[in-house]
Write a structure and sequence with these properties.
alpha/beta, Rossmann fold, 2 domains, eight-stranded mixed β-sheet, five-stranded parallel β-sheet, 21 strands, 34% helix, binds flavin mononucleotide
Length: 395
């Protein structure tokens, strides 16, 4: 994404400190980040923190005589590509909903024409107060995005709704708004990710090294590009995704069941999961029950070939993409896979190459279609995800 301007509005809620993490991450990612604080927010975190993290002056005073950009609230409002107010206090929601512009933040937000995201955070009783609910409903009706606060133990020790979502969630909302390429709008994309687990007995299981990162990046990118995304995922250590309908599964059989029943409805299906080829015929404990203690070796049977099934049941116009993990003759075998499984795109993973593979954040792949073999350089998995979506929409 080219360097875009993000304005963060921070109000006087206890969660204000959490925005330091977001401001730091966005700045590191290359965005031009400006923070506007309310006077009360400075009771919770200092402007100096944000200035140090963003490299930009933190703005508080509507009447500061700083001529760098002319009238500051107007120039920042014009420059902003997206505006996030987090945490948004009950007080701020009330002001914004009623057109009150009595400080730098409320004045700038009123002048902003870019997408506005509001992340309310407060004590549960304040959140559930009909006045707060009415203000939020009104702000939503104006087309602003209001993020639902999370439930949990709040700073006031109450348990309930009102907690600011994690940085990752706020980040995803921002990225979705900043992504101007909406070529997947109106499309249903079904993605599988992660490994499957096949139990040998109640304690042990067979699995593989898939981290799920590639599939998750694909789901994120498709969501940012406007798709309605369903992600069928094996057990992974990744944070749940915003805006993505996530279906958790454990075994290859479950993955097959969940994918096959949803595939009919999808415009694009991407199988990025590393599904175990084999599953135990019977578990070791079943063998013990049968009294065959001496014969403990577990025998395996083949799991269903999900990609082959998807290829055989492809509906007209549907695009199918699979991943290929060959350790030998990668391109040759990947092309064979494309033909045999009736896929439209195979993403061949150069597992043995530096920077490629399961666990890391980068990958080295070659995109294989009927008419093309396109090697890509070392890229982040997020970039590979975009390249895969580009290739699928070009088909
Ligand atoms: C310790 C403390 C924590 C607070 N946390 C919140 C909060 O999380 N959410 C909220 O809406 N108000 C909270 N308040 C109340 C606001 O600070 C108060 O309503 C203030 O007027 C908000 O000003 P602002 O919206 O201009 O920043 C808190 C107050 C105190 C003293």
């Amino acid at each position: 994404m080219e360097k875009k301007t993000i304005v963060l509005g921070v109000t006087g809620g206890i969660a204000a400190y959490k925005i330091a993490d977001l401001a730091s991450r966005l700045t590191k990612e290359g965005f031009d980040v400006h923070v506007i604080m309310t006077k009360n927010a400075t009771e919770f975190i200092t402007p100096l923190t944000f200035e140090t993290l963003t490299g930009n002056k933190c703005i508080l005073d509507t009447f500061a005589r700083d001529f760098e950009w002319g009238v500051k609230h107007i120039s920042l409002a014009k420059r902003a590509d997206v505006f996030l107010i987090a945490p948004a206090t009950a007080n701020f929601l009330g002001k914004m909903a009623h057109g009150i512009a009595d400080d730098m933040l409320t004045t700038t937000v009123m002048a902003a024409t870019c997408p506005i995201i509001i992340s309310p955070s407060m004590n549960t009783a304040m959140y559930e107060n009909p006045v707060t609910q009415k203000n939020m409903a009104f702000l939503k009706s104006l087309g602003h995005t209001v993020i639902d606060p999370e439930e949990g133990v709040l700073a006031c020790r109450d348990i309930g709704k009102g907690r600011l979502p994690e940085t990752e969630v706020l980040h995803s909302f921002l990225m979705e708004k900043l992504c101007s390429k909406k070529d997947y709008a109106g499309k249903k994309v079904l993605i599988t990710a992660g490994p499957t687990q096949e139990s040998i007995d109640p304690v042990r299981f067979v699995t593989n090294h898939s981290s799920g990162k590639m599939g998750y990046e694909l789901a994120k990118a498709a969501f940012y590009r406007g798709a309605e995304v369903t992600l069928v995922t094996g057990q992974v250590a990744l944070k749940p995704l915003v805006g993505v309908n996530t279906v958790p599964v454990v075994t290859a059989e479950e993955m097959f069941r969940e994918v096959s029943k949803r595939a009919e409805d999808a415009d694009v299906v991407i199988k990025a999961a590393a599904v175990a080829d084999f599953t135990p015929k019977e578990t070791a404990s079943e063998k013990i029950k049968k009294g065959s203690e001496e014969e403990m070796a577990v025998s395996f049977q083949r799991t269903k070939d999900i990609l082959a099934y998807l290829g055989e049941h492809k509906k007209p116009g549907q695009k199918l993409c699979g991943f290929s993990m060959e350790t030998e003759h990668l391109l040759e075998n990947s092309r064979k896979k494309l033909e045999k499984k009736h896929a439209d795109l195979i993403v061949a993973n150069h597992l043995k190459q530096e920077g490629a593979g399961f666990a890391g954040d980068t990958n080295v792949v070659t995109l294989i279609t009927k008419d093309d073999t396109r090697p890509l350089p070392l890229m982040s998995k997020a970039e590979v995800a975009d390249a895969v979506l580009d290739a699928l929409s070009e088909l």
